[in-house]
């Protein structure tokens, strides 16, 4: 079967602080090696990690639409089962994205990978939620990645880190003190009212063992007034499965 990665983003919204604020994993802790077997690192040809993603089937990776490249011919690589981002000895799986890409849906674009992935003790998929499922306010979810570890940027983390974040209600997130109406039904807000924690762009927001969100955007990184905004995967579950099964 053809192997592709689907890049999803329901709205073309980007961070007010620019691209760097989407590449951060603020706060959190270093996780045990290979404890997030579904987590994917998207890297440019130079080896630069620029986005996260999650393995949702043997042949498909879920990430954010803004993680696509500007050039359809740019070579990207996808690495799974990483713990130390820059340590070649820990790169258990590497699959290169082909130059092929085309638009198929207003929700995103797709890119073909050059060979299928193999599940083993270090690599597995993360399940999707049921269509329309909702996480209640104050339930904790997890985001993992290798992004910047401080709000000011600096160096990215070379070790996989995770943060646990509480779900924020759409009402609070849409208040005049926060995003003032910009949050739609296709978005999830998560974070602390004290700020200080944020996620890696394109990476999964995992709640109760399922990928409920995709790290998408925010007004400022790890800000108490502006929690992180995530694509609500449950609203697109049927479309995702339809796309996967049509191609496999």
Automatic annotation (TrEMBL):
GO BP, sorted A to Z: proteolysis
SUPFAM superfamilies: Trypsin-like serine proteases
Highest rank taxon of the organism: Eukaryota
Molecular function GO terms recorded: serine-type endopeptidase activity
PROSITE patterns registered for this protein in UniProt: TRYPSIN_DOM, TRYPSIN_HIS, TRYPSIN_SER
UniProt KW Methyltransferase keyword: no
GO cellular component, one term: extracellular space
InterPro entries to which the protein is assigned, alphabetical: Peptidase_S1_PA (IPR009003), Peptidase_S1_PA_chymotrypsin (IPR043504), Peptidase_S1A (IPR001314), Serine_Proteases_S1 (IPR050127), Trypsin_dom (IPR001254), TRYPSIN_HIS (IPR018114), TRYPSIN_SER (IPR033116)
Alphabetized UniProt keyword annotations: Disulfide bond, Hydrolase, Protease, Serine protease
Residue ranges of every copy of the Peptidase S1 domain listed in the record: 25-245
Lipid metabolism recorded as keyword: no
A Pfam cross-reference name: Trypsin
SMART domains linked: Tryp_SPc
Homology family: Belongs to the peptidase S1 family. CLIP subfamily.
Protein name: Peptidase S1 domain-containing protein
């Amino acid at each position: 079967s053809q192997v592709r990665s689907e890049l999803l983003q329901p709205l073309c919204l980007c961070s007010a602080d620019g691209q760097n604020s989407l590449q951060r994993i603020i706060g959190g802790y270093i996780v045990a090696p290979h404890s997030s077997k579904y987590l994917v690192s998207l890297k440019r040809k130079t080896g630069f990690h620029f986005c996260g993603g999650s393995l949702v089937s043997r042949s498909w990776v879920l990430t954010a639409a803004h993680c696509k490249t500007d050039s359809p011919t740019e070579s990207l690589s996808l690495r799974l089962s990483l713990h130390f981002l820059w340590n070649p000895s820990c790169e258990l799986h590497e699959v290169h994205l082909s130059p092929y890409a085309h638009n198929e849906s207003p929700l995103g674009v797709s890119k073909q990978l050059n060979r299928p992935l193999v599940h083993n003790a270090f690599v597995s998929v993360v399940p999707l939620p049921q269509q329309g499922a909702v996480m209640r306010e104050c339930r904790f979810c997890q985001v993992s990645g290798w992004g910047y570890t401080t709000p000011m940027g600096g160096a990215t983390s070379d070790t996989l880190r995770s943060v646990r974040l509480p779900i924020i209600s759409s009402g609070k997130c849409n208040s005049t003190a926060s995003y003032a109406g910009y949050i739609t039904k296709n978005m999830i807000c998560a974070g602390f009212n004290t700020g200080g924690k944020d996620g890696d762009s394109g990476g999964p927001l995992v709640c109760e063992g399922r990928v409920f969100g995709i790290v998408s955007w925010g007004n400022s990184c790890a800000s108490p007034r502006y929690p992180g905004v995530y694509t609500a995967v449950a609203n697109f579950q049927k479309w995702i499965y339809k796309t996967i099964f049509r191609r496999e």
